[in-house]
Amino acid sequence: MYENLLAIGIMALVYGLVVTERVHRTTAALLGIVLVLGTGVLTIPEAVTYVDWQALGLIFGMFILVSALVQSGFFRWVGLHALRAARFRPVRVFVLFCGLAAILAAFMDSITVMIFMGSLGLEVSRLLGLRPTPFIIGMITSANIGGAATMVGDPPNVILGTALNFGFVDFLVNVGPVALAAIATNVGFFYLVHRRTGLVSSTKTGSAVAAADGGLDPASAIRDFRLLRVSLVIFAFTVTLLVLHQVLDLLVAFVALLGAALVLMFGGKDMPELVTKIDWHTLLFLGGLFVIVGGLEKTGVLHDVALALGAASGGSVPLLLTLLLWSAALLSMVLDNIPFAAAMVPVLRDLSATTGYALGPLAWSLALGTDIGGNATPIGASGNIVGLAVAEKGGVHVTWREYVRDALPATRLVVGVCNLLLLLRFA
Question: Rounded to the nearest 10 degrees, what angle do helices 155-164 and 359-373 cross at?
C-alpha cells in the first residue's frame, strides 16, 4: 500500500507541475524519474524496460522528416496551391484550409502544421477580408481531429499503437473513417455558426483578390527545390513502409529512423543541422512519463483502475466505450493528453484481460477522446497553444472566452458524433 500511495503521489506531483506550469514539463518529468528511482518504486533496469523505445524512435524519425519538409518551404507551397485551387472564394478557402490542416496533421505533429498554416491563414484572411479568429480556431480544431486518423498523427496514437501492437493500417481503417466524419462535422459547425459573421462573406471579389496576389505565387514559397524533391520522395517511401510494416515484419521505429537517415544522407550539406531543431523536450518528457507510469503499473494502481472501470460499465460494452471516450475527452480539455494516454495503456490491457472485451475498440475510443477533447480549451493540446501564439504574433489576440465560445460546443458535437459512430460499429 505504501508503494501504491508513493507512485500515485509522484504522478500527481508531476501532473500538478505540468498543469500549473510552475516548471517546464520536461523538468517535471525528469523530477518524476528521480523520485521514482530514488524512492525505490522502480530500479534502473526496471525503468529502462518500461520506456517505449518504439514510440520514441518513431517520433524522432518523423521529427527529422518533417523538419526537412519545413526547411524546403513545402508547407507554404501547399497552402498557396490550396488558395488558388479555391479560386479565392471564402467558403472554399475555409473548407480547403481546414481540410489541408487535417490531412497534414495526419502525418506530422500539429505544432508544425499550425506554425505554417496559422501564419498563412492570417495572411489569407486579411487578403479576403475575413474575420481571422474563427478561421484560426477552425484550422486548429481540424488539425487535432486529423491527427487522430493515423498512428503517426498525434503522440497519444503513437503511444497506443506501439504499446498495444496496433499498426498504421489498424488506425487508418478503424479510426480514420470516424475522424473523417468528425472533420466534416467540425467544419460544418464553424460554417453554420459564422456564415453571417464574416467568416464566409467577403466584400472582396475573387477577381480583385486574384489580381492583387503577387506575393502569393506558390513557386515563391520554395526555398530549396532539391531538398523538396528529396524529402517528398523519402517521406512517401517512409509512409508506404509504415502502411506495410506489419506485412513486411518491420518495426515502426526502424521505418521512421530509416527515413530520417536517408533524408540526412541525401538532403544536402545542411541536413545535419536538422538534428538541432528536433523537439528534444517532447522526447525527454515522453521518456520520463513512461518511467513514472511504469511505477503505477508495477505497484498495481493501474490494475485497480481497470477493475473500477470494468465494474462501472456493468458488463455493457456500449457504456464502457462511452465512458472511455468522454472521460478521455473531458480530461484532455485541461490536462496534457500525452501523459494521460501513457497512463491509460496498462489500464486498457488489464481492462481487456479482466472483462474479455476486445482491446481494439477500447483503444480507438481512448485515441479519439484524447485527440479531440483537447480542442475545447486553449491549453488542451500543444497545437492550440502554438496556433494561438502565431495569431498573437500576427496581431490577432484570441481570448479564452472567444476560443471556448467556439471550440467547446464544436468539441461536444464532434465527440458526440464519434460516440455514435463507435457504438454503431463496435458495440
Answer: 170
pLDDT in the model for residue 170: 94
> Which residues of the chain, if any, have pLDDT below 50?
207, 211
DSSP state of 250: -
Distance between CA 352 and CA 33 in Å, rounded?
28
Q: Report the chain's C-alpha Rg in angstroms.
A: 22
* The predicted structure's pLDDT at residue 213: 53
Distance CA 215, CA 38 (A): 58
Distance CA 65, CA 277 (A): 11
Over residues 192-218, the pLDDT tens digits come to 988 766 665 555 555 455 545 555 677
Cα 63 from Cα 57, distance rounded (Å) = 10
- Amino acid 199: pLDDT: 63
Tell me the one-letter amino acid at 198: G
Alpha-carbon torsion 284, 289, 292, 293, what sign? negative
Amino acid at 63: F
Q: Of 371, 415, 348, 315, nearest to 110 (Cα)?
A: 371
CA angle 239, 328, 27 (to 5 degrees): 75
Please work out, in degrees rounded to the nearest 5, the angle formed at the alpha carbon of residue 346 by the alpha carbons of 340 and 350: 130
Cell output for 312: 462501472
From the list 32, 135, 57, the residue with the least C-alpha distance to 93 is 135
- Is the separation of the CB atoms in 188 and 289 below 8 Å? no
Torsional sign, CA 295, 301, 305, 310:
positive
Measure CA 372 to chain center. 9
Rounded Cα distance between 58 and 107, Å, is 12
Query: In the block, which residue shows the cell 460494452?
Result: 317
Residues with Cβ within 8 Å of residue 249, at least 6 apart in sequence: none
Tell me the whole-structure pTM to 2 decimals. Answer: 0.78
Contact 282, 42 (CB under 8 A): no
